[in-house]
Design a protein that fits this description.
The chain has one helix at 39-51; strands at 2-6, 13-17, 24-26, 33-35, 57-58, 64-65. It is built from one helix and six strands; from the N terminus they run E-E-E-E-H-E-E. The chain has a two-stranded antiparallel sheet. Strands 3-4 form a two-stranded antiparallel sheet. Strands 5-6 form a two-stranded antiparallel sheet. Strand 5 (57-58) and strand 6 form a beta hairpin. The longest helix has 13 residues, at 39-51. It has one domain (2-65): Rubrerythrin, domain 2 (Single Sheet), CATH 2.20.28. It is α+β, with helices and mostly antiparallel strands.
Length: 66
């Protein structure tokens, strides 16, 4: 399984491995360093998305909006 992360600055999508979870990654396009959420945070976000009737957004600090 792979993770799909989007750079918070330039928005470029990157495919990452599961080993990249809970680590900092550098954007391949703009060079910004950002944190990839831990797998547990991703599981919680996926559960919220399944229950939500609208879009849910989780920022790089793990805050949930939507």
């Amino acid at each position: 399984m792979r993770l799909l992360a989007r750079c918070p600055d330039c928005g470029v999508a990157m495919r990452l491995s599961l080993e990249d979870a809970d680590k900092r990654k550098r954007c391949r396009q703009c060079g910004r360093l950002f944190k990839v959420p831990a797998l547990e945070q991703l599981r919680k976000a996926l559960e919220l998305i399944k229950q939500a009737h609208a879009g849910v957004y989780v920022d790089e600090k793990g805050n949930v909006y939507g």
